[in-house]
Amino acid sequence: MSALRRDFWAPVALSYVTFILVGLSSGVGGVLLPAQIDDYGLDKATIGTQFFAFSAGFMLSGSTAGPLIHRLGIRASLILGGGTFALAGLFTAVRPPFLAFLVAQIVAGYGTGIFESVLNAYLTDLPGATTLLNRLHAFFGVGALLGPLLATWILTFLPWTAVWLVLALVSLPLLIGFYLTLPAREAPPPATAEEQAKRAGLLATASRQPAVLLGAVFLAVYVGLEISVGNWGFSFLVDEHGQSDLVAGYTISGYWLGLTLGRFLISPIATRLGMTATGMTFLCLAGVTLSTMLAWLVPGAAMASVSFVLLGFWLGPVFPTTMAVAPRLTVARLVPTAIGLINGVSVVGGAVFPWFTGAIAQGIGAWTLPPFAVALALLQLVIWWLVTTRMAPAARTVS
C-alpha cells in the first residue's frame, strides 16, 4: 500500500460505510410505503410524492456541492451534509404531519446529495480513482440489499418511524469519524476581485460546458434505466412471464446483487487487462444493450431472470466510472462543481424515466419494459460516444 493510501485509508473506509448508509436509506423506501399509507391514510399516488420531494432536495444539492467544497472544504461539507441528513431523520422519527414529512424528505434528499457529490469529488482526486469509486458505489449496492431486510425486521416490532431513527443515529458516528480523520481546510490566501468573480460563477460556467452537460444527460439516462428496471421488473416478470411473487422477488434481488458485483469485479479485471476507463465503459454499455435485447427477444421466464441479473452486472460500473473521468470533462477548478451538477441532474432521470415506464406499462402493457430498456441502452451508447469525443487525454489504463 502506498504512503498516500496509508494516510487516507480511514476516510476512504468511512466513505464506503457512508455509502452503505445511503444505500440503506434508498432500500428501505419501498418496504415503508404500506405502513406510511396506513398511518397517514393516503393513497399510493399521494404518498409517492415523497420521492419527488427527495429528488428536489437531491437536485438542490447538486447545484451547491461545488461551491460548498470550494468555500468550506471536504470535511466541513461532509459534516454539513451528514448533519442535515441526521436532522431530517430525527424529525421524521417523531412522525410529523404529512406536509412536514415532505419537507423533511427535501432536507434528507439534500443531505444525501451532499454526501454523494462530496465523496465522489473526494475520491476522484485520489490515486486509483476508478477502482475506488467503483468500490464506493458497490457499497451503495450493499446498503440497498440490506435496507429492505432491516426495514422488514424493524417493522415486526416497531413503527415505520423507527427505521428513520436508526438511519439518523447511524449517521452520527460517521460525522465524528470524518471530523477526526480529514484535515480542516487550510485558510486560502485573500482572493483578488477577479478570483472572487470566477468563484461566484462556478455553477454557471460548468453548466455551459458541453462535455459536462453531456455527462449529466448520460447519467440521467443511466439512472433512469437502472431505476426503471429495478422498480418495474417485478411487475414484468409476474404479468408477462407468470413468475410467482417469490421467484420474481428473487430475480430483482439478483438484479441488484449483479449491480453490486459488477462494481466490485469489473474495474479490477479491466485494470489487469490494461483497459482504459472509457473502453471499460463501452464494454459495459455493450453488455447492457445485449442484456436488454436478451430480455426482449428471447422467450422464457428463466431467460428473463438471467438477463436481468446480467443487466445489473453490466450496469454496475457505469455510474462510478463516469464520476472517475469527470476531471477530464472540464478544468481543474470546476471539477467539484461539475461532479455536483452531474450527480444532481442524474436524479432527474431516476424520477422521469421510471414514471414514464409505468405510464407506458399502464396504457399498453408490462411487456413494453424490455424494448423501452433497449431504447435507453442504445441512447446511452450514443451519448457516451459524444462524451468521449470531448474528453481530455488520460492515462492508458483504468486506475
What is the secondary structure topology, with strand pairs?
Elements: H1 3-27, H2 29-40, H3 44-47, H4 49-93, H5 98-124, H6 129-155, H7 161-181, H8 193-200, H9 202-207, H10 210-241, H11 245-272, H12 277-297, H13 301-315, H14 318-324, H15 335-363, H16 369-388
State the share of residues found in helices, binned by percent. over 70%
Shape: globular
Our measurement of the CA-to-CA distance between the termini, rounded to an integer number of angstroms, reads: 14 Å
Total of helices: 16
Outline the low-pLDDT stretches: 187-197
Describe the structure.
Its main location: membrane. Belongs to the major facilitator superfamily. This is MFS transporter. This protein is mainly α. It has helices at about 5-25, 30-40, 45, 50-95, 100-125, 130-155, 160-180, 195-200, 200-205, 210-240, 245-270, 275-295, 300-315, 320-325, 335-365, 370-390. Helix 6 runs antiparallel to helix 11 (about 245-270) and helix 10 (about 210-240) runs parallel beside helix 15 (about 335-365). The longest helix is centred in the first third of the chain and has 45 residues, at about 50-95. The model is unreliable at about 185-195 (pLDDT under 50).
